[in-house]
Design a protein that fits this description.
By secondary structure, the protein is α+β, with helices and mostly antiparallel strands. 12% of the residues lie in helices and 29% in strands. Helix 2 packs antiparallel against helix 3. The chain is elongated.
Length: 246
């Protein structure tokens, strides 16, 4: 059955996951955390991420395992933190990794590259392995859809369990205008057009995180660099399937 995954997120993050859908999986491990002395009990998970969005490659994934008091990676309807803005505009997860790496509420954090020149291209799968525990039960992830100005996918403070499946939409970080101008887009759609660099316009977007509106082929009444027949998509952008690692 489909459900809103807020029920699988921490109380701290129940309003952050409104558009993620899937199934709840089997929560046997965390039910066993209720007894005393179980804080160090661990489970290794295999997180398979499938890119469902045609011609929208995903950048290396930021992945963190943490407790309820760790920072939010994102929150719908709120401004993006600067580190997420950098990831959503450039595809570089370094600032987010560094932010979480210095937080005592985070057990593990890393950036995971995709199978095709570090990207996860449409139709491809990447498998991410993490260890969760009774003390650090939550997982957060984020990646840029690199043929856009500032679209990203992600989950925030979700308790992943075996057999869980999530369908995740594309979010707009709200940190850069969606001008669809290749001077501001790092992905192969623009590299194929001969551009050697890209710029950023941080702080000039919508101002808050919301569902991304896709590629329209126009900006301010003029044709943009991106052809929507090639680079637009319909949500969800990625599918996440969780299994216990054997």
């Amino acid at each position: 059955a489909l459900l809103v995954v807020a029920s699988s997120a921490s109380e701290h993050a129940t309003d952050r996951q409104l558009y993620i859908r899937g199934n709840s999986g089997q929560d046997n491990f965390f039910q066993g955390c209720r007894g005393k002395g179980n804080a160090n009990r661990e489970m290794e998970l295999e997180i398979s991420v499938y890119n469902l969005a045609y011609r929208q490659p995903m950048s290396p994934f930021f992945v963190a395992v943490h407790n309820e008091d760790a920072p939010d990676v994102f929150r719908l309807g709120s401004p993006a933190i600067p580190e997420l803005g950098t990831l959503a505009e450039t595809g570089n997860a370094t600032d987010l990794v560094n932010l979480f790496d210095t937080d005592e509420n985070v057990a593990h954090v890393k950036a995971v590259e995709g199978p095709s020149d570090v990207l996860l291209r449409d139709g491809e799968k990447t498998v991410i392995t993490v260890s969760v525990s009774c003390a650090y039960p939550y997982v957060s992830m984020a990646s840029m859809a690199v043929n856009t100005n500032d679209c990203f996918v992600g989950i925030n403070h979700v308790k992943l369990v075996p057999d869980m499946m999530l369908l995740v939409p594309g979010y707009d970080s709200g940190t850069e205008v969606n001008n669809e101008d290749c001077d501001f887009i790092p992905g192969p759609a623009c590299a194929n057009m001969g551009r050697k660099r890209f710029e950023r316009t941080p702080g000039q977007g919508e101002g808050v995180i919301g569902i991304h509106r896709g590629v329209h082929g126009t900006w301010n009444g003029e044709a943009s660099d991106l052809d929507p027949s090639l680079y637009d998509w319909r949500n969800p952008m990625i599918q996440i399937i969780v299994k216990e690692s054997m």
